[in-house]
Structure formats: C-alpha cells, structure tokens
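Quick question, first post here. What does this chain look like in 3D?
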Amino acid sequence: MKVLRRFFIITFCLLFSSALYADEHTLSNVPKDFLGTYMPVQMEMLVKEYMSYEKALNTIAESHYDILSLEDNICYSQVRFSDGYAVLAKDFEKWSFVKRGDERYILDENGLSYHRISTKKADWDAYAEKVLNIIFADAIHNKNILVEGGNVTIYGKQYHFDLWPSYVDDYGALVLSRCVLKIEGVSANIYKTERVGHWESKRTDEIIQTIPLFYWNDEDYAHLRVYKYHDSKESLRLLRNLVYAKHGYKFQSDDLKKIFSDFDWYKPSDTFSESSFTNLEKSVISDIQRYEAN
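> Answer (accepted):
Ran it through. Tokens below.
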C-alpha cells in the first residue's frame, strides 16, 4: 500500500511539474508567418567584427537569446535548441513582429532584434551556414574554399563546423572537426587540438593548413588599417602585393602567383600600370612600405 501511495505521489508531482513547465513556456497566438529559426542581428555583426564565432556567442549571451526556434506553441532560445532553454510565455507576450518584404524580424521583450535565417524550426544547418558565410565572406572567392551547410572545404579537405564545442582557448575563430581555425595577420591557420579533460580540448601549436589572404572585402579592400599588421613582414608583403593583384599585375614570384591565382577576381593583364592605382591605394602602399622599412 505504501509503495502504491508513493507511486501515485511521484506520478502526481511529475505531472504537476510538467503542467507547470508547459504553462510557463507554452505560447498562444504565435504568428504563423513568423515560424522558423532566427539569429540575433547583433550576432551577425559581431561575428563579422570579431571574425570569431566563439567570441561573438559569448558576447551576445550577456544580453540576447543565443538563437530562436519559433514553433507553433514554443520558442527554443539556446543554440542547442534544448527544451531547458525556452522563452517564457509572459515574456513572449511583449514581443513584436516585423515584416520587411520577404524578411522577418522579431523584437524581444527588451527590444533586441532577431533576423529569420530559415523557415524551418531548429535549423542547425542554416545557422551554421550563416556563420560560415559571414566569416568566409570574401575567402569564398578563393576557388579552393567552399561552404556547404555546416561544412567548409578548404583546399580539398572538408571540415565540419562545431556549433557548441567543449573547448578551451583564447577565442579561436572556429572549431572545425577537432581543429581550430584562427585568423592571424592576413592569413588563417588551422591548428590541431588535444584533449585536456573528459569534454574539453585546447589548441596545440601544430598547424595543419594555412589559408593566405583569408578575409578581404573585395570592394573596400583599400580601406585597410595597415597598422594592425605592422609587426608581420609577411602580412605587409601580401597586403602590398594585393593592390598589384587587383590591377592585374603578373607576378614573377611563384608563391605570389599561386596565392593570387586561386582567387576568381585575379585577372593578369599585359597592360598593367601603376598609374591605374587610386590615391587611396597609393596611400596604402606608402603606409605599408613605411612599416616594412622599420
């Protein structure tokens, strides 16, 4: 009898807690036209600013929901889309929903904005691809770099982007298939990692691949803050020759020829002339040469 009574008590408690949870997180009047997966607008901006997913995610976590998966009666709010992280119904009542053409935006209870990146719920691939496309925005002009869903192929080797790594590091740009991609100067290095605990890993000093000229805005490349690279002779050399490559200079050096030939915008020209450089480009080259001479 005691066993039976205990069973009923436990069952009642479980049902009550489930009902309570459902009441707290079950949403009503969800706009059907807004279902899907959302990323914080600020997250998109921070990923591009930091060129580091981990640093952006840790920064955004202080103020925003990591991500939103808005479904018929619940909205998951953490990058793992776990039901332990769902928006409270009382907060959801304060949300606003904004249409801009085909785009959909959500303003949360604190007025913070989220942009829909997929009409599917908990769309990991869309989220991963969005992050990868931000970080590799200009590198994908390299014919040897391809982003597909949550994967990026770099010079024939495919890496998977880990959205929630158990990882210890100084904010590597990305954790890729038990490796870490870290931007250093005007290149990016892919480092091996090693275990330091049951779940955690750290970056080693062993470099698997180096990607030259990793991040460039093709339209605004000349707006360079050259001082950022003042302590790297190799970065300064690549920067200086980037200006020449943009105007079709035919390189004699094998390494420069190989680096720039991999980019779809590089068009060698028999009519190359430094007279085609803009004043801004001339200023950039002057700054670079000044740092190279030190």
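Confidence is low (pLDDT under 50) at residues 1-21.
Residues 169 and 202 are 6 Å apart (CA to CA).
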